[in-house]
Target: MFS transporter
Amino acid sequence: MSILKAISVSRAPFFALGAIGVYWGTFAAMVPVIKQQAGASDAQFGLALLGASVGGMAAMYLAPRMAQALGRYILPVLLLLMVAAMQLPALVSSPLMLFPILAALGVTISGLDINANMRISQLEERHGMHLMNVNHAMFSLCFGAAALIVATLRQAGWSVGQVFPMMGGIAFLLGGLVWEGKRWRAVDPEPEGTDVPQHLPWLFIALTGVMLFVSFVGENATEAWSALFIERELGGEAGEGGFGPSTLGFVMAVFRLLGQVTTEKLGEERVVFWSGVLGVIGSLVIAGAQSQGIVLIGIAITAVGMAVIVPTANSLLGKLVHRQQRALAISRAWLFGFTGYFIGPSLIGFVSQAYGLRIAFVCVAIMVSFIIPAVLIIKARRHAAAVAR
Model:
């Protein structure tokens, strides 16, 4: 019942993240086709993905102002823009075109993503509930379903120009549920005489940004390159690569739902710590896999590890800052952290070009390991602050 209650309370961002999942699942399963259509090498494709990072950083920086300007209309407007941008990959015909198209995608998707997460954090404080994991489970479920659908469509011979319009239509239908209407209201004002901190807690923001960054590296590197790993490194047939991203999405969805319960029982810091350990193990299994079965096991372990880090880190940061600072703090943590969502695949591209995909996934494992000291520092600082009080 707590999960159903959480969905009801956060319906608008819940379905906004679902629509984002539809896009990323579609894109991840279509990476081999888009890359071939553009005639891009691994390094060129990796460089083009930095365009999405540039667009995403701009959206993250402007997110608090956008939310204030558009108010209750922010999620519907950004979702419509994302659906329109989803049609751009069909226009790719050269490596040069990839960068601006992915930059446009980065602006629209990142803008919707960060505003949905800021809204969830507001609702968590207002209702006294943990909402992040169930909302991010919706993203993962839609991501996995979209990747599986697209894998089937690719096997049936569908082109980029056919797949993206259809999947954009599905995202559009989900968009009908992001309108909050009268249920929406801004952050509750502070009572008169209440002191609001003048400075942001930059240490906590930076450490949360590190957690987000390396988690997004592990998650999106696996999303964007697992299909190519299966089809190129292991000799899978066209379309079989889509089972990599779909496995990631479905397993993450299940464990994010479990995280809705375990985070409340175990606490954010402990959950993020052990998630980081599993993320490292999963990436190493992928790197050493010699069969499709083993690589899917590695992807599943990575999914278990990556599943709850982002939503749980968001909730943790929300508790560490004053509510009037929450939107700005989360946007600044994401400004750095979300770049990992695009730098991860770019890193894979550059390393793969020079040393191969297996070494690239070893690099991912090393980066994911940085979650562990970040969690330990936050835990030590919170303990020291509690003792001082």
